[in-house]
Amino acid sequence: MPPGLHPERPFQCGRFRLSLGKPLIMGVINVTPDSFSDGGAHAQSAAAIEHGLKLVVEGADILDIGGESTRPGSLPVDAAEELARILPVLEALTQVGVPLSVDTTKPEVMRQAVAAGADMINDVAAFRVPGALDVMADSAAALCIMHMQGEPRTMQSNPHYDDVVAEVAGFLQDRAHAAEALGIVKERIVLDPGFGFGKTLGHNLLLLKNLGRLADLGWPVLAGLSRKSMLGAITGRDVQDRVHASVAAALLAVVNGARIVRVHDVGATRDALDVLDALNGCS
Ligand code: HH2
């Protein structure tokens, strides 16, 4: 277990207390017509719910439900549309036995999602929209605080850092402290470097290699590399053919300090993490 994390201090995630002794798998459900990874496949509630049930059977520890794509160049949707996409899925899955996360940047969506039973809010904008942290302070839900340079529409146009690892670490630490200043306990917070969000391939690789430095900050680290274009750049493969690279990336993220991996291919990732677990358990 990375320094700063204690087995007796479980991750507080809404209705759940999760041990981080073993890495956790967050399975992705995109209820969107335009996600880069699986756009349109689960845009209707029934298909999204069925997909969520399948991910739990495959071994997901958390489900992450998103109603707005954040792919480079994507256009925002309004809160009413986002809620219409996610709420039926959230409500149908509340008894599935694993925590439900909602991937949103909008305080109004956060408020209604938490009221409908969301255990976690995953915000790619790091709860910077005014009011977002206040909604979280009034709830018991966990927070995933993610780093992004710029905004989805333009973030990949010319990302620049003097020291990407130090800058991402400093940003995440500041946002975690801002949350804690409102009374949100450390055990409800995870940090995410935001692979692909305003980063070149070189930036992403440096962050993956140095994930341990983020883990050393003292909050659990979540990593989302699944099917991302950095894996396409490395392997030359289209998005639907990046499963093997995604599994490798998830495994490397865990080896380098991540405690939660956000993935589309849950079953394959579970197998890889089981191999790692067996290795760690042998003597
Ligand atoms: N990546 C995506 C979306 N949300 N949240 C966190 N915390 N970390 C990530 O790396 C992350 C995220 C992008 O992937 P996906 O959801 O498949 O695509 P889209 O944003 O196009 O729906």
How are the secondary structure elements laid out?
Elements: E1 11-13, E2 16-18, E3 24-30, H1 45-58, E4 62-66, H2 79-93, E5 100-103, H3 107-115, E6 120-123, H4 132-137, E7 142-146, H5 164-181, E8 189-192, H6 201-209, H7 211-215, E9 222-223, H8 229-235, H9 243-255, E10 260-263, H10 266-281
Parallel strand pairs: 3-4, 3-10, 4-5, 5-6, 6-7, 7-8, 9-10
Antiparallel strand pairs: 1-2
Helix pairs in contact: 1-2, 2-3, 9-10
The structure holds 6-hydroxymethylpterin-diphosphate.
Explain what the structure shows.
The protein has 283 residues and is of the alpha/beta class. The chain has a single domain, classed as TIM Barrel (Alpha-Beta Barrel). It is built from ten helices and ten strands. It has an eight-stranded parallel β-sheet with strand order 8-7-6-5-4-3-10-9. Strands 1-2 form a two-stranded antiparallel ribbon. Helix 1 packs across helix 2, helix 2 packs parallel to helix 3 and helix 9 runs parallel beside helix 10. The longest helix is centred in the middle third of the chain and has 18 residues. The radius of gyration is 17 Å and the shape is globular. The two termini are 17 Å apart. The model has no long low-confidence stretch (mean pLDDT 94).
Bin the helical content.
25-40%
Q: Provide the domain count.
A: 1
How large, in whole angstroms, is the Cα Rg?
17 Å
CATH superfamily: Dihydropteroate synthase-like
Q: Which CATH architecture would you pick?
A: Alpha-Beta Barrel
Bound molecules: 6-hydroxymethylpterin-diphosphate
Q: Which CATH class applies here?
A: Alpha Beta
> Low-confidence spans: pLDDT under 50, at least 5 residues?
none
Query: By helix and strand content, what is the structural category?
Result: alpha/beta
Order of helices and strands: EEEHEHEHEHEHEHHEHHEH
Shape: globular
Number of helices: 10
Overall residue-averaged pLDDT value: 94
Content of β-strand: 5-15%
CATH topology call: TIM Barrel
